[in-house]
Every structure is written in C-alpha cells, then in structure tokens.
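Lab notebook page, bench 4
Experiment: in silico fold of construct C2
Operator: M.H.
Input chain length: 424 residues
Purpose: comparison with the prior construct
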Amino acid sequence: MTEDWLPAETLKHLDTQIAFSSDRIYFRFRWDQPHPGGWIHDMLVYQDGEWRQFADPSPWVTATENPEHTGFYEDRVSFLLDDGSVRGFEEFGGWLTVHDGMRSLPSEVPEPEVQAHEHFGPDGLDKTDIRKYIPQACDGEWWENDWREMKSQTELERLKREGVFLDLPMWRAHRSNPKGFGTDHHVLDYRHSDQGHNTYTTQEWDPEDGPELMWDPAVVEGGALDYHEIRDGTFPDQQEGTYALEMEDAVPFDPTVAEWEGAMIPRRPLRDPVGSAADWKASGVWDDGEWVVEMWRDLQTDHPLDTTQLEPGGVYTWTPAVHHGAGQRWHWVGYPYKLGLGAEPDYAGDQYTAGPTELVATEFTGATPDWDRIETYTLPLVFPGLLTWNDLIDESHPRADDVRDAAVTMWELYENAPESFIGQ
C-alpha cells in the first residue's frame, strides 16, 4: 500500500446508540456501506501454480479503480475508551496515539531498528513494528512521545495498575463476528491484545506447499472458496454463508482436493476466545448496503489491568472509528466525545460545534435494550490522513503551546466541525 492511498470516501456518518443496565453496557452502530464483501479477509489464493496472500485493501474501496489490484480486508468498528486517566485524550482523542515511526506512515521505523531496541526487541516485547501508544508511556514531559524513550517496564506496570491506558475493543466482520464476539485490546506502550487470546489465530503457509488447513469438503465443496466468483461479486452470504475457516470445520490441507486455480482459503482460522480478550460479545449484520453492529460487555470485569471498569453515573471519554476493506491508519475516526452513563457530561468541546459532543447512555431494565426507545446520535467520522501527534506539538504548529498545555480540543483546532478537517 502506498502512503498517498486514499479511500473512495473521506467522510462517514456513524449512527450510535448507547444503553446500560445495572451490570452491562450496550452499543449499537449503523453506517452506510454500499459495497458488499467486507466480511472477506486475508485470503490465500492458488494462482498461476503457486499460493499467494491477498491481504491488501479490498479492490472496491480505493479512490481510483485498479483492475489489477488484489486483496481482501474485513470491515470493522472500534472505539477508544478512557476514564480520565490518560492525559490529553479528552482533548485530542485518537490523535494522541499516532506518532512518527508507526507502521504505515512515511516515517515507519524499519524492522531491524525495532528489533534492536531494548523495549521492543527480543528481550522486551519482541515486535517488528511500532503501533499506537500514549505519550505517558514515554519519558519526559507528558506530551513528549519518542518511541525510543519508553518508560521502564516497572513504570509501565505501575501505570497499568493505575488505569493509565486506553481500552480498545473492536468488532471485526471476519475475524470475530462469526464467533459472536469482539476482540479486545488496550493501548499504553503498544497496541496490546488483552490477556488470554482473541477469536482468531494464524495458519502457516508456503507458496509452493500451500496452507496448513482447508475446509472440510463436506462443509465447503473442494475445500476452498472460488476467488474468481468472489472477485466478480458472488460473495458468500454474510449471515448464512461460509466464508470464515472455523477450527471445527478445518481439516489438514490436501492438495489433491484444494489446489486448483482460484482456490481461496483464509489465512486466519477462528477459535473461541478466552480470558479478558473474551469480555466483549458482538453481532453484526450487513443488509442492503448497511452495517448494523451491536457490542456489549459487563460494566465490571475480572480484568482491570487491561479493561476500563465502568459504573452507572460515570463519565468517560470515548471516540469511535470505522474501517472498510482496509487496515492500519486507513479508516475514518471520530473526534473525542464525553459519554455519561445516565449522567450529563460537561465538555469544553461542546461550545465549538453545533453537533453533539456530549453523549448520554440510556438506562434500561431487562435482558436487552429496546433500541426504539434509545436516542440515536449521528456522529461524523473523518479520514485522518497523515496528521500525527508530532505535528500537533511541533513548534511550527500555530497552537503548539495550547496543545502541550491541553488547553484546546480537536473541535476547536479544526474550526468547529469534523467536516472542516478533511485535507488538513
């Protein structure tokens, strides 16, 4: 993917409903997505005598059509959530987590440099790239954010105990939805998966020998999907069709069965989640050009070291994002909102826009919310381009001092409305 890649749309609107009971919170999201196939993800395809990985953005999502483009990437909705422990998040939302050196940016740190670093290398996290983190994970002033200057592991563990991290649950159309779950993550020095394991794993594969697993031919004829049919628009039904390789339907790969031109097998088999990674339940349906997704979890969980604990009457900072057919930074993101669970928030960003910045979750009784009785907020999401936290705190930025003092919000910085952000 090139650094100047753009989605076909630069602005989306996300209809959001939020409800809570004495022990649980629910989110319901709706957004227009006219392109089908967002539930197909990261496929291994047998083409011209070898197996290839098709995991770039999906062909239908780019601003310019490219008939030679290959790739399949799932649709997603996610959000960041904070209880006030992360400095700057109330003002700047997700922009606080995006820094020079991260993967997919022009400044991306090469893998050898990441591996050579004490914290990110083999003796630490053993990572190959730099992902989201918060400035508080770094040494220096609260806003300083050099990835090479991470706090000690002892200090990072202290921050986690104090709740200084961002909760990051996701709903994934391919890698979690078929299992009835979301996937759960948190951001401190890296975008970590929560304790336990999520709904997907990765199978090994080789261009010559193929993957480890395929579908049982009794489940999918020929042990694989047909790439040519899907590329032409004949997708497995999102609600009833088979498109994800669940472990109970998988058998060892047999080239005499599933090695044929256009055979297509997911690289990411699905499994049941466990531990904190299984906190969020979720369900999503694509129908007639629209996604409707529900996510829910207990207010209080057994995993406070990687999950923000919630309570009725509490006020939190919340910011959503939507991915369509692409990953990493190619998504649409919301400005920060204040979310009250039955409480009316008071947010400085409110004075800078005619739209909502203060959201109130509706209390309900019974097993599940009656969504017809729950207020709907229509929230604008923007394509963020290349803007990073480094840009906002750089001395060349006209309001860098206000950013460093957390004396301004994204709502004010970009002139009252997310629509005005486009092209910044």
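Observations: The CA atoms of residues 166 and 187 lie 5 Å apart. The longest strand covers residues 11-20.
Next step: discuss at group meeting.
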